[in-house]
């Protein structure tokens, strides 16, 4: 009986020891995870002095969450900037849903990069002695701010964090060009703020539109009549539809049946021709109608290329299944 009691007591002591070890390891793991996140965040945000022009965080609940995520210094300033008119709880809920890794990689990292470039642009604006150049640089600065609309994008960031990061990263490079603009202040032209990829897209649209009855001056005049947001939307949607068209063509190339492949190619070429006519027709309309036709009214072409791609994949799968029977 005594042996049984001793054995039971020994088992209890062993279980307690194992429980203690497990808790200790859990605490260390959580501590190490927080330390890793903090190191990761600090590596990303870099020197806080570069964001000295931004406000510091004061909301204790939000501050505690960012502490938990390992975000401090410049990262917190970035969160304060993007929160805009949102209440503390609204910002907290969005960041909490995204989690530490996503917040650091998709929100903090691109935003800090953008705001550093933005802060440098603010300093550059103050340098020119020519007041006319300074005014034009300020105009471009506000143009970029309106285009990136980082605060507006943050409202819908949950579920769209990749799009948020992509948009913010795109405009960081634009703010970085302000030093070049001071040396060559051709900043009022609609093309001045377009990067090489944007310009290439405009050139493609121009090649579709220009004809014997529609010259380059008229094309440029129409673009200059649009605000920046509309131009960016036209560029983005044209690129998106072009990607859909390329994906459809790639799917068609995978079809082995020559007759089916030719039929799909004919459909693709017809739809591409209709889309080109759609673009040309838009440039013969008013500013508002042009913008609407090339943005909201272009969805049918995006869907059309998707349908052709799906059909091509179905034909390919059917042929493969038939060949295997």
Protein architecture, described:
With 325 residues, the protein is mostly helical. It folds into 2 domains: 46-186, no CATH class; 187-319, no CATH class. It is 78% helix and 0% strand. The chain is flat. This is Lipoprotein. Keywords: Plasmid.
Would you summarize the structure shown here?
The chain has helices at 2-45, 60-69, 74-83, 88-98, 100-125, 131-148, 150-155, 161-175, 178-183, 196-209, 216-224, 228-253, 258-282, 287-294, 299-324. It has 325 residues and is mainly alpha-helical.
Number of domains: 2
Tell me the β content: under 5%
Overall geometry:
flat
Q: How do the SSEs run, as a string of H and E?
A: HHHHHHHHHHHHHHH
Structure summary, number of beta strands: 0
Number of helices: 15
Fraction of helical residues = over 70%
Sequence stretches where pLDDT stays below 50 over 5 or more residues: 1-5, 23-47
Largest pleated sheet = none
The chain-level structural class is mainly alpha
Q: How far is the N terminus from the C terminus?
A: 74 Å
Mean pLDDT: 77
Our Rg estimate from Cα atoms comes to: 28 Å
């Amino acid at each position: 009986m005594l042996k049984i009691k001793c054995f039971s007591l020994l088992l209890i002591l062993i279980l307690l020891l194992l429980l203690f070890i497990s808790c200790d390891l859990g605490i260390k793991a959580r501590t190490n995870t927080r330390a890793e996140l903090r190191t990761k965040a600090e590596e990303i945000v870099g020197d806080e002095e570069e964001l000295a022009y931004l406000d510091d965080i004061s909301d204790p609940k939000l501050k505690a969450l960012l502490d938990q995520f390992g975000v401090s210094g410049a990262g917190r300033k970035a969160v304060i900037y993007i929160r805009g008119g949102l209440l503390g709880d609204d910002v907290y809920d969005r960041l909490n849903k995204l989690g530490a890794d996503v917040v650091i990689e998709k929100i903090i990292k691109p935003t800090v990069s953008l705001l550093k470039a933005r802060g440098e642009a603010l300093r550059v604006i103050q340098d020119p002695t020519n007041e006319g150049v300074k005014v034009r640089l300020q105009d471009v600065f506000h143009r970029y701010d309106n285009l990136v609309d980082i605060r507006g994008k943050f409202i819908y960031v949950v579920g769209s964090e990749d799009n948020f990061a992509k948009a913010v990263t795109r405009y960081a490079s634009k703010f970085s060009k302000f030093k070049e603009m001071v040396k060559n202040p051709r900043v009022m032209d609609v093309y001045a703020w377009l990067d090489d990829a944007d310009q290439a897209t405009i050139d493609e649209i121009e090649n579709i539109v220009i004809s014997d009855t529609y010259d380059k001056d008229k094309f440029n005049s129409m673009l200059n009549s649009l605000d920046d947001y509309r131009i960016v939307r036209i560029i983005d949607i044209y690129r998106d539809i072009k990607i859909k068209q390329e994906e459809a063509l790639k799917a068609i190339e995978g079809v082995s049946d020559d007759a089916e492949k030719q039929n799909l190619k004919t459909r693709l070429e017809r739809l591409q021709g209709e889309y080109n006519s759609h673009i040309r027709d838009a440039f013969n309309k008013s500013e508002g109608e042009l913008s609407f036709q090339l943005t909201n009214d272009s969805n049918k072409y995006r869907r059309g290329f998707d349908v052709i791609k799906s059909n091509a994949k179905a034909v390919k799968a059917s042929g493969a299944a038939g060949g295997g029977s």
